[in-house]
Amino acid sequence: MGCAVHTTLPAGVGYTTLELKVNYIRAARTDGQTLIAEGTVLHAGRRTATAEGKVLDEQGKLIAHATTTCMILRTDG
């Protein structure tokens, strides 16, 4: 989710997590199965950004989903 937020920022602008909420739905197998993570920006403002994410297994079953709020760190005030 942080990486999704990062893609909306110009060079030299940083961010940090203000809030993070994760819901674990089922256990992920540990036998080498590939997991797929997706992050989507919901809001990208001047001071804050929000995003959601999910983790799926190879069969498309939901493993976990989450939301975050990030604070945008600008040096120009």
Automatic annotation (TrEMBL):
Signal peptide: none
Superkingdom, natural source: Bacteria
UniProt keyword Coiled coil present: no
Thioesterase domain boundaries: 2-63
Gene Ontology MF: a single term: acyl-CoA hydrolase activity
Keyword annotations of the record: Hydrolase
Classification via Gene3D superfamilies: Hotdog Thioesterase (3.10.129.10)
Key word Magnesium present: no
Record-given protein name: Thioesterase domain-containing protein
